[in-house]
Design brief:
This protein is about 55% helix and about 15% strand. The protein is of the alpha/beta class. It has one domain: P-loop containing nucleotide triphosphate hydrolases (Rossmann fold, 3-Layer(aba) Sandwich), CATH 3.40.50. A five-stranded parallel sheet has the order 2-3-1-4-5, with helices on both faces. Helix 1 crosses helix 8, helix 2 packs across helix 4 and helix 4 runs parallel beside helix 5. The longest helix has 22 residues. The chain is globular, with a radius of gyration of 16 Å. The model has no long low-confidence stretch (mean pLDDT about 85).
Length: about 180
């Protein structure tokens, strides 16, 4: 499959949708690098996302996330973003300048099924904010930034990967036809 060689593939979506897991598999399939931005934030901060939230609050985590995403200089990689990446227009513009943005969409029921540790997972949200509220707040942002959307409900990671590879191949073919 021929996707512009240096282009990144940016995965966005709710926590629990499988961005990191799918990202590794996709990177292997496409012979690209893999970057998990949550891990980059933790590495730079020297603490877990939950420790950042507990000690400095959710806005500090979002600011760190924006700084990391805006300054990333990677190419030819699959990038798994944190679920809150879409709160930063600056960060998302920076990412989209170097790649295609894929929204991995999962219903609220699907997210609930997959996230069992909501209070300790390191989700950047205001104190007391419910999963329902976070979901409702982020959905339109994911949709706005997405170049492609892949439905993930009731699908295995292998099924999602196959569908995503098919969509990328189709998108790559359309780009080549225009040139």
């Amino acid at each position: 499959m021929k996707l512009a060689a240096q282009k990144n593939i940016i995965l966005i979506g709710m926590p629990g949708v499988g961005k990191s897991t799918l990202g590794v598999l996709l990177a292997k399939e496409l012979a690209k690098g893999f970057v998990d931005t949550d891990l980059l934030i933790q590495e730079q901060a020297g603490k877990t996302l939950q420790d950042i939230l507990d000690g400095q609050g959710y806005m500090a985590l979002r600011e760190m996330e924006e700084a990391v995403l805006s300054s990333m200089q990677v190419s030819n990689s699959v990038i798994a973003t944190g679920g809150s990446a879409v709160y930063s227009n600056k960060a998302m513009r920076s990412l989209k300048e170097r790649g295609i943005c894929i929204y991995l969409r999962l219903s609220l029921a699907g997210v609930r099924q997959r996230i069992h540790n909501f209070q300790s997972r390191g989700i950047a949200a205001a104190s007391g904010q419910s999963l329902d509220h976070i979901f409702a707040e982020r959905q339109p942002l994911y949709e706005d930034y997405a170049d492609l959307t892949i439905e993930c409900d009731n699908k295995s990671i292998e099924e999602v990967l196959g569908e995503l590879l098919g969509e990328l191949k189709a998108a790559s073919g359309k780009l080549q036809e225009k040139q």
